[in-house]
Amino acid sequence: MSKAETTPPPKATPPPKATPPEKTEPPAPAFEKSYVDQITNQFSDDVEVEYIKENRTRVNVKKEKIAEVAKFIKDNTPFDHAESVTGVDFPEDKEIGVVYHLGSYTDDTYSKQVLALATRVPREENPNPGNDSTKLPSLRDMFYSVEFHEREVFEMLGVYFESHPDNRRLLLPEDWADLPPLRKDFRNKGR
Amino acid sequence: MTEQVIPTKQMPPGLQVENIDDRIMTLNVGPQHPGSGHMRIIVKIDGDYIVDADPDPGYVHRGEEKMAESRNYITNIPHLERPVIHDSCNILYPYVLGVEDLVGIEVPERAKYVRVITAELNRCIYIQYWLAIYGIFLGHSTMFMWPAGDRELLIDLMEKITGARVTHAYFIPGGVRNDVPANFEDVCLRQVNYFEKRIKEYADIFYDNPILKARTEDTGVLSKEDAIRLGTTGSVLRASGVDYDIRVKEPYDVYDELDVHTNVLKAGDSYARSKIPWLDMLESCNIIRQALEKMPKSGSIRTKLKPNPKGGDDEVYRRVESGRGAAGCHIISKSKPEPYRLKLSVGSFRNLIALPYLLKGEKLGNMPAVYWSLNYWPVEADR
Known about the structure:
The complex is a heterodimer of chains A (191) and B (383). Chain A contains 3 helices and 7 strands. Chain A is α/β, with parallel strands linked by helices and 191 residues long. Chain A is globular and about 50 Å long. Chain B has 2 domains: 2-56, no CATH class; 64-354 and 367-382, Cytochrome-c3 Hydrogenase, chain B (Orthogonal Bundle), CATH 1.10.645.10. In chain B, helix 5 runs antiparallel to helix 6 (184-200). Chain B is globular. Chain B starts with 24 loop residues before the first strand and ends with a helix. Chain A binds chain B through residues 55-56, 58, 80-84, 86, 88-89, 99, 101, 105-106, 111-112, 114, 116, 129-131, 143-149, 155, 160, 167-176, 181-182, 186, 188, 191, and chain B through 13-16, 56-58, 61, 63, 65-67, 70, 228-233, 237, 242, 244, 249-250, 315-317, 319, 326, 328, 330, 332, 340-341, 343, 345, 349-350, 352-353, 382-383.
């Protein structure tokens, strides 16, 4: 498509910007805060609350403590299954994030809640999935439903889950010999 | 058992080597077998009994999540519905809700009702398709013909609304793409009433059929505890006695203004799992009638978006009840027009974990009854 070359019209002077009003953080919802506090009280230094919104909360955990925190959540809160496991690549931070979304079927008061349990693992420049430092303990013993989700994160981002009984590829072919495709340095062909 | 032969060569992770046994036979069902969908199930059988089953999805993996990272929030719409073209409204629903949260726009009241009506129509269309397949693989060819034919009623209706028979791309952030046609309420009500009358007849020919009951009752029983532990969702979960439907538990759009009944059965066998979607269709007809009554007769159907909408440095996780269970969409935004990461957590993928569990100990002949009762759509699981 060829664009007609035209001289840009002279820019009008922008009106002076009004200073935005001071934003005050709304107070965290009480119910959501109560169960997040349970976790933060137990693991004060190792967890960091990312946000507490209505029905959605997120807790960031150090990778050494993820299994311990998950066990605590399983034993002390009504969260009983994982809905989704997202792997996210952060090349600038040289890290890969893994987010578990936990939900509850057993407790009716918790049926709206989704607790995101997130952690980060080091990212290797030249990954060798399974044999490098990109490793995490598997949460399958606590939340059985993560089994296939963790296999997907393993093949798509190269995060190896130790103590996972079945670390095979799931969606990709067995002989896939490229980078894990959801890493940002894996380029779509033609893009 | 033969002696274990362990290869000395270091195998790359992901590659499997296995010994051959003279008693256990390994059978590949799929990925091109019509009875498996686009997916392979590796079953090990001892005589007629399945001793191990290993689902191997990925035959139709299309990298929707990777594609979404290089397209903006609007151009993502048509390809994100491709995993389930028969249920395209419901698979787009969590994405659209998520983008609305990120961009911060309100949806007009009329658009919310139109969305609920089309989502319920789409749920019926999907379930009819699934029911047709379920019928034919249990050897009931009438049950293939009837739903495949009755489905056309609603497809015609969707075509009138959206302009396309299956891939509607109808939901957009801010509302729906175009308004419903004139006299839509009357046509929709008439079609839905006739449709409901038709699907009630399925009970006589299919669900009360003693042959079907003999084949599916007490086959592949999933207990309530295991359904929760395995994190199953949708009809699989509700057939095992767990009362959980996102339309009721976490209502989105106008579901909180409608009276939605959750269908729950306690048996947890293949029969219960196949009956729940049929009950859901009847419930969908109720919801559509209520929504048609309460829908504002005129008004805007979309809030206009800015040309290249951006989210902030934020993330959002929204979920809806699709035809196969909860569909969740996790969007991570980094102040760009494209999502930084988009994850679809879909019902088929979550229910797949129950398959090896249910197949172990079943007869090979019962495999279709168990597999298709999971309300599984291989293309959706692969994404």
